[in-house]
Amino acid sequence: MIRNLITGGAGFIGSHLAEHLLDNGEEVLVWDNLSTGRMSNLQRCVGRPGFRYIISDFTEDPSFPRMAEQVDVIFHLAAAVGVQLIVNDPVRTLETNILGTEVALRAAAKYGKRIFVASTSEVYGKGTRIPFSEDDDVLYGPTTKRRWNYAISKAVDEFLLLAYAESHGLPGVVGRLFNTVGPRQVPHYGMVIPRFIEQARTGAEMTVYGDGTQRRCFGHVRDVVPAIHKLVHCDDAIGHVVNLGSNQEITILELAIKIRDRLQSDSEIRFVPYEIAYRPGFEDMERRVPDLTKAERLIAYRPSRTLDIALDDILADGAAAPGAVMGNSR
Ligand code: UDP
User: Fold this and answer.
1) Distance (Å, rounded) from C-alpha 62 to C-alpha 56?
2) How far apart are the C-alpha atoms of 90 and 165, rounded to whole Å?
3) Ligand 1 centroid vs 34 CA: distance in angstroms?
4) How would you label 178-192 residue by residue, b for 16+ Cβ within 10 Å and e otherwise?
């Protein structure tokens, strides 16, 4: 039976991955410090055979390397999440992202374990050549603008994994995740879909940042998670960076209207300048579309769930379990 360790396993994506692996008959050890993860995310895992969890900071826990030795695969998902959090707490962003990845990679390399490291489409920075392909050049703003700290810290994570793979033969792969959505994503770290749903539900103004013409592609977590699983076991993917997500675009204003219509809400839409939403000098990306050719070639990745399906699933989950969307359980 395959044994897996997931750092950040109580988070939004980590908890879906834990469930997916258990459904596949594998063992799962979730490691999370509950800084942004929540135990309620694991309610469908706790008590199932083969499931265990440890609540501590794995970067400081002396038992982490020993536990890493006892598993077959490590999924490193623990990271600072959400643009809001990243802008508000730059030290935590850098330390969590860089130190965490170093600790996870060192343990994986020591025992020769397969490892998946979650990266982000933020790594493409201000690139404008659409779609974004893994080997494209990246372009960032100055280090004096906090916004780029996240992108650069995740780029360092990618360099670390690639260096370990090349110099130490580490069987590792990086997944560059584009906007990923689904049940259990909470609004408090700034993610747009749970925020709009909460605003539309409560009749609050829906805060569209900028002029709402910026576009995003939203991938369903239930398409992304099986792809993460396949990638870590794909020999041809070892030592590579691979985009994952959806390539179907929507403008943020259209998204707000869609969610308002779906919830039959009479919330007003309010346009909020970026410098008020985040901080002066904040730069948003206009568009962010993944080239999915590499994922398709390696693991036959073809996401099938549309944004409408994602919204159905989020709303159904929120209705079934109050608080799941609102994220008020911590
Ligand atoms: N956004 C918005 N209103 C909100 C939160 C986010 O208009 O209340 C916008 C944000 O400026 C960005 C897009 O929605 O253009 C997606 O934001 P999110 O933080 O979910 O992910 P990002 O793509 O920025 O990582």
Assistant:
1) 11
2) 28
3) 23
4) bbbbbbbbbbbbbbb
Confidence of residue 319 (pLDDT cuts 50, 70, 90): low
- DSSP H helices in the chain: 12-23, 64-69, 83-88, 90-94, 100-111, 147-168, 192-202, 221-232, 252-262, 274-277, 293-299, 307-320
Residue 238 belongs to a domain: yes
**282: which 2 tokens?**
């904040």
- What's the whole-number mean pLDDT along residues 109-121? 97
Look up residue 24 and give its two tokens.
Answer: 């596949």
- CB count in 10 Å sphere of residue 312: 13
In ligand 1, which atom is closest to the CA atom of 208? Answer: 7
In a domain, 197, yes or no: no
Instruction: Determine, yes or no, domain membership for 134.
Output: yes
Give the residue whose CA is nearest to atom 23 of ligand 1. Answer: 179
Q: Which of 1-5, 216-220, 270-274, 325-329 has the lowest mean pLDDT?
A: 325-329
Distance 190 CA to ligand 1 centre (A): 7
Nearest CA to ligand 1 atom 13: 192
Note if the bond before 187 is cis, omega within 30 degrees.
Answer: no
136 φ, ψ (degrees, to nearest 5): -65, 155
pLDDT digits (tens, 9 = 90+) for 78-106: 998 877 777 788 888 888 899 999 999 99
Dihedral sign, CA of 310, 275, 204, 329? Answer: positive
Specify whether 150 is catalytic: yes
Q: How far apart are CA 39 and CA 101, in angstroms?
A: 23
Host domain of residue 61: 3-181+218-247+289-305
Task: Give the pLDDT mean for 191-212.
Answer: 97
Residue 324 lies in a domain: no
The number of domains in the chain is: 1
Query: Parallel, antiparallel, or unpaired: how do β-strands 215-217 and 249-251 relate?
Result: antiparallel
